[in-house]
Write a structure and sequence with these properties.
With 202 residues, the chain is mainly alpha-helical. It contains seven helices and five strands.
Length: 202
C-alpha cells in the first residue's frame, strides 16, 4: 500500500478532529485555513458579520417563503382549472414565443433550467396531452425539436387568463404602482433575472 496516501488521509482526519475544539472562524497556522463549524456561515473578510440576522435575515426568509407559497398556489390553481402545472405552462409559453412555435429540446432545457431527462419527462406529458409534438431536424438527426400544437396554443391562451389573474391577486395587489416599479428594479439586480417577454398570449 502507498503509505504516503494513508499518511495524507490520516493528517486530514486529525486536522478535522482538532478543528472541533477551535473557535468559529479561527485560523490554523499550520495549514493557513479557516475553521468554520457545521451550519455556520463562512467568516467575513471585512467588516460584514458572518451571521445573517435582523433585517437581512427577514428579507431573505420572506423572499424564500413567499416565492415558494406563491408558486405552490399558482400551480394548484392551474392544475385545478386547466390540468397543467406551472412548469407545463412555462414550456408552452416559451414555445409560443419562439419562431414557428418550436425550440430544440436542448434550448428548452436551458430556458427552463431543467436537466435533459427532466425536460424529456415534462415534454412527454405534454405530447401525451396533444399540446406539443416532437419534430426531427431534417439536417441533423441528433437534434429534436418540441413544437407547440394548435391545441397547445389554445390551452395556453385559456390558462393565461387564470395565471395572470392569480399573479395579480397573489403578488401585484400587495404593492402600489410605485412600489412595483421599485421592486422590479431591485429584483432585476439578482442573478438570473431577465427582462422582456410576456407571461401570456393573446
Amino acid at each position: 500500500m502507498d503509505t504516503s496516501a494513508t499518511d495524507g488521509i490520516a493528517s486530514v482526519v486529525d486536522a478535522a478532529h482538532d478543528s472541533r475544539d477551535a473557535a468559529p472562524g479561527t485560523v490554523d497556522a499550520a495549514t493557513n485555513t479557516v475553521t468554520v463549524p457545521p451550519g455556520a456561515c463562512a467568516p467575513s473578510t471585512g467588516e460584514e458579520s458572518s451571521s445573517l440576522e435582523g433585517v437581512a435575515l427577514e428579507a431573505w426568509r420572506s423572499y424564500l417563503q413567499s416565492h415558494a407559497t406563491i408558486v405552490r398556489m399558482l400551480d394548484a390553481e392551474l392544475i385545478s382549472e386547466h390540468g397543467i402545472t406551472t412548469r407545463d405552462y412555462e414550456v408552452l409559453l416559451y414555445l409560443a414565443q419562439s419562431p414557428d412555435r418550436k425550440l430544440p429540446m436542448s434550448a428548452l432545457a436551458e430556458s427552463t433550467m431543467l436537466t435533459r431527462s427532466g425536460i424529456t419527462r415534462l415534454v412527454d406529458g405534454l405530447v401525451a396531452g396533444g399540446f406539443i409534438e416532437r419534430v426531427s431536424c431534417p439536417s441533423d438527426a441528433r437534434v429534436s425539436y418540441a413544437q407547440l400544437t394548435d391545441d397547445g396554443f389554445e390551452k395556453l391562451r385559456s390558462a393565461g387568463c387564470t395565471h395572470v389573474g392569480s399573479i395579480r391577486r397573489l403578488f401585484l395587489e400587495h404593492f402600489d404602482p410605485d412600489e412595483t416599479g421599485q421592486l422590479a428594479s431591485l429584483l432585476g439586480r439578482l442573478p438570473g433575472a431577465g427582462s422582456g417577454g410576456s407571461c401570456s398570449v393573446e
